[in-house]
Amino acid sequence: MTDQRRSDGSLRHLLTLADLNRDELEMLLERAQHHVRRRGDAAPRSDVLAGITVANLFTEPSTRTRVSFELAARRLGADVVNLEMQLSSRVKGESMLDTVFTLESLHVDVFVVRDAEAGVPALVADNVGPAVSVLSAGEAHLSHPTQGLLDVLTILQRKGSCEQLAVAIVGDIRHSRVARSAWQALRTLGVGELRLVAPPALMPAAEEFAGCRRYDSIDDGIRGVDVVMMLRIQRERFADADIPAGDAYFERYGLTPARLALAQRDAIVMHPQPMNRGVEIDSVVADGPQSVIRDQVTNGVAVRMAVLETLATRPAPRRG
Ligand code: CP
């Protein structure tokens, strides 16, 4: 496994939240909260990453993660390169590593990598020079660490702490990197209870998500919870599965106002997006007063600023 840390123990890469300790998570979350601004307020700016170049290498589609990494880097004073993969020499057969080596020769300091294939962010991290950092922006179904951080930040903003909370993750958990990263962060922060709600075909393997209670019924799974995290069915990650088709999925697993009423009165509703309204969530809920879905997006920039400044800031030059 790729070591995310430098020899002095500081974080160099962010590929997974699985081995971050509580202090590291809390430091990143505290730093992110420092960057949060209410909608309408001026965006925070600094030049802490002046002279640093960040390259976004996304081989899977993205709206939120790519834009917020770009905004975060620019607001910290970095230069940003967005490689359009379908217009790059990748389509002529150039490998990911040769693309990375080319960009390294152009003095890229930070690679932000999204890929459908497991292991690609680690492959890049294992092959770049010692001063270069790699941040996963989503790796297959395995890991989406900055999404996990922004999800936890959103929960903490509304609930204060995780320890007393019951959280339900609902939907296609088997194929979800969002669920895995959220679980890793919530576990480390001592969440009270995590429930998994999914049709059997979309439930993760038994050896994953140790200690979580599993439900087929959404009504049973969200009863009394403080947080409901809805997930999209990730049809791009499987060919076929035994799941209710069409409207039947919404009837059995969709989050409606009536179902949300089974959770705590002050429960919050989350969704990493993109969401399929009328499939996993009713628009009345997605746009309703308990929804924090837009806060999640806003927090994405603050989290990515915190991660970039923590990992990519150059050490001050030695005097003398
Ligand atoms: N939540 C998330 O990863 O969204 P994007 O795919 O738009 O980046």
Topology:
Blueprint: H1 22-35, E1 53-58, H2 64-75, E2 79-83, H3 96-105, E3 110-115, H4 120-127, E4 133-139, H5 145-159, E5 166-170, H6 177-188, E6 193-197, E7 213-215, H7 218-222, E8 227-230, H8 247-253, H9 257-260, E9 268-270, H10 283-286, H11 293-312
Parallel strand pairs: 1-2, 1-3, 3-4, 5-6, 5-8, 6-7, 8-9
Helix pairs in contact: 1-5, 1-11, 2-11, 5-6, 5-11
The chain binds phosphoric acid mono(formamide)ester.
Walk me through the structure.
The protein is of the alpha/beta class and 320 residues long. The chain has 2 domains: 22-143 and 298-312, Aspartate/ornithine carbamoyltransferase (Rossmann fold); 145-293, Rossmann fold. Helix content is 35%, strand content 14%. The chain has 11 helices and 9 strands. The chain has a 5-stranded parallel beta sheet. The chain has a 4-stranded parallel beta sheet with strand order 2-1-3-4, with helices on both faces. The radius of gyration is 20 Å and the shape is globular. Residues 62-65, 138, 147, 272-274 line the site of phosphoric acid mono(formamide)ester.
Radius of gyration: 20 Å
The major beta sheet can be summarized as:
5 strands, parallel
Inertia-based shape: globular
Number of domains: 2
Count of DSSP-assigned helices: 11
Bound molecules: phosphoric acid mono(formamide)ester
Binned strand content: 5-15%
How are helices and strands ordered from N to C? HEHEHEHEHEHEEHEHHEHH
Cα-to-Cα separation, first versus last residue: 38 Å
CATH class of the largest domain: Alpha Beta
Mean pLDDT: 95
Kindly report the CATH topology of the largest domain: Rossmann fold
Structural class: alpha/beta
Order of strands, main sheet, comes to 7-6-5-8-9
